[in-house]
Structures are given as structure tokens and as C-alpha cells.
């Protein structure tokens, strides 16, 4: 991941455990973010920026951020339809819809198919990384 977190921490000589205390992000996640093995989500990016007293773009330039967190296709495609309405149409729990939309969980193949069907689109329209079987 093209994140400047490691560089910022090295320049300021801030250990991961200290950043964890300041940002309320677990040390294991800080370590993975620093090493580029865990993508930095929007909430974590905000927490890190506040803890380090820097701009979010200082940690993760927008180009790099969008590579790991492309525009939220599910939210864009569902438009004015609420998560609750989508949950009702798919038979999935509203919390699952929310977690999938926020990319906290990927959602299994079956859930993705249900969501795409409820929105009258292909699975790959929402998740380009998925190649829908014709």
C-alpha cells in the first residue's frame, strides 16, 4: 500500500504502541498498516491523522487511498434505496448489508448475488474484482 504512515512514524520516532494509545487502534492493526499488509480504512485514516496531528492526505495520498478503497459501488448503485430496504429485498440482516457496504466484511458469493439481484445489476457492477459466471 502506498501509505506514508511508516515514514511519518520513523521521522517522528513514534513507536507503534504509542500511536495505538493515541489513536485507539489496536497495536496489531497499527503494525499491519505500517507494513502495508492491512489497508487503512476511512475511520482509521481519520483516527491516525488526528493522533499524529497531520492531514489525512499526509498519511495516505488520495490516489493511493482510492486504489485500496475504490468508490463505494454498493452505496452508489443502491442510490436512494435504504440499507434496511435492501436487507428486506435480499433476506440479509441490515447489519450485514452495512458491514459489506463499509467493506468490513467482503460478503460471501451468495450474499453478493442476492444484493446484485435486488439492485438489478451484475455482481461485477458492484464488485469489479468478481467475474460473474454467465
TrEMBL record:
GO terms for cellular component: cytosol. Keywords: DNA-binding. SUPFAM superfamilies: lambda repressor-like DNA-binding domains (SSF47413). Residues 8-59, 82-126 form the HTH cro/C1-type domain. It comes from the Bacteria. InterPro entries: Cro/C1-type_HTH, Lambda_DNA-bd_dom_sf, TransReg_Diox_bact_type. The keyword GTP-binding does not apply. This is Cro/C1-type HTH DNA-binding domain-containing protein. It comes from Dethiosulfatibacter aminovorans DSM 17477. The lineage of its organism: Bacteria, Bacillati, Bacillota, Tissierellia, Dethiosulfatibacter.
Amino acid at each position: 500500500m502506498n501509505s506514508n504512515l511508516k515514514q511519518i512514524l520513523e521521522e517522528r520516532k513514534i513507536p507503534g504502541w504509542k500511536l495505538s494509545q493515541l489513536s485507539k487502534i489496536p497495536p496489531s492493526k497499527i503494525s499491519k498498516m505500517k507494513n502495508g499488509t492491512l489497508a487503512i480504512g476511512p475511520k482509521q485514516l481519520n483516527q491516525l491523522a488526528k493522533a499524529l496531528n497531520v492531514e489525512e492526505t499526509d498519511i495516505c495520498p488520495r490516489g493511493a487511498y482510492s486504489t485500496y478503497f475504490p468508490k463505494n459501488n454498493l452505496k452508489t448503485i443502491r442510490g436512494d434505496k435504504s440499507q434496511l430496504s435492501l436487507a428486506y429485498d435480499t433476506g440479509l440482516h441490515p447489519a450485514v448489508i452495512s458491514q459489506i457496504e463499509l467493506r468490513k466484511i467482503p460478503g460471501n458469493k451468495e450474499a453478493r448475488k442476492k444484493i446484485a439481484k435486488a439492485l438489478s445489476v451484475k455482481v461485477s457492477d458492484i464488485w469489479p474484482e468478481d467475474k460473474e459466471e454467465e
